[in-house]
Amino acid sequence: MALKNSTDRGALERLLLSRLPRKEISALVQSYTQPYRELMSYYRCAMMEVETKFNVLNEELSLQYDRNPIESIKTRLKSPESIAEKLQRRGFPLTVESIEENLNDIAGVRVICSFPSDIYQLADAFLKQDDITLLQRKDYIAEPKPNGYRSLHLIVETPIFLHDQKRMMRVEVQFRTISMDWWASLEHKIRYKKDLPELDHVNRELFECAQMSAQLDARMEKAPASRRDRRRGAAHRQPMGRAPVRPAHALSAGLRRGSVSIPVSRSINQQGSPAEAGEPCCSL
Predict the structure, then answer these.
(1) Of 86, 82, 55, residue with least CA distance to 71
(2) If we measure between CA atoms, which residue out of 113, 125, 109 comes closest to residue 180?
(3) 161: which strand partners?
(4) Which pLDDT score, from 0 to 100, does residue 191 have?
(5) Which terminal CB of the chain, N or C, has fewer other CB atoms within 10 Å?
């Protein structure tokens, strides 16, 4: 006789479990959960590997450019509920093998950078490492999503080394600037708020804020670049007619001998009249 509904099936399951010894129940649960727990631990190891790589890059680039290109690094492991929902939505079986084969975003690493140029520099340096394999790249900075979302997404494969084997694990890496990150975080909270009135109006407001965020990134990146250009220009400009700079030890020796004269193109002598061009204003 077929069971009428889920309530009947649940009652039957409880009856069968009540007749099983506790040890057998524990072994049954363990047989189902242990493979999942092992897989999640492998994903955690993969996240640690990727996070370490970015910490090393941040340390090296901070010495080269006198600033840290990475503001922060966040990691997250997808929850069991999210994994099950995604598998069911895509029509995949709820098995450990299906998780590893069909989902690329179980392990996630988010790198928050100062400027958009830092994102591409870090991504290029990361992908050049010989143990990183790029599987997928989506550049939502060059081509933002219709709602205004901006980020650079990479799906990569990296090895983890266990005590008896090497496993290749997939990790999703997201690169954002600070403004990209706060917009995405607030957009998620606002969009999934219950009973949100005037959804079209809210979408327009969020899109306009995303555009303002992109403009802010562009302006903030130009500011330090323009200061660097001005400093470089000042360093390379030299007034006409100025004598070449002499080494400090040669200058001090000349001062002791009294043989150093300082030529100037135009100066004021002791009487207050202009000195002739090329005439020393003083001799020591």
Answers:
(1) 55
(2) 113
(3) 166
(4) 74
(5) N
Alpha-carbon distance 100 to 168, whole Å?
11
DSSP state of 98: H
DSSP string, 145-188: -TT----EEEEEEEEEE-SS-EEEEEEEEEEEEHHHHHHHHHHH
Could you report the per-residue pLDDT of 174-215, keeping only the tens digit for each?
999 999 999 999 888 887 765 566 677 888 888 999 999 999
Contact of 132 with 120, CB cutoff 8 Å: no
> CA 42 to CA 65: how far, in whole Å?
35
pTM assigned to the model: 0.69
Of 173, 168, 164, 162, which Cα lies nearest the Cα of 100?
Answer: 168
Query: 133-139 and 166-177 as β-strands: parallel, antiparallel, unpaired?
Result: unpaired
267 vs 206: CA distance, rounded Å? 63
DSSP state of 213: H
CA 137 to mean position of chain CA atoms: 14
3-state secondary structure of 108: strand
Q: Helices H, strands E: what count in the chain? A: 8, 5
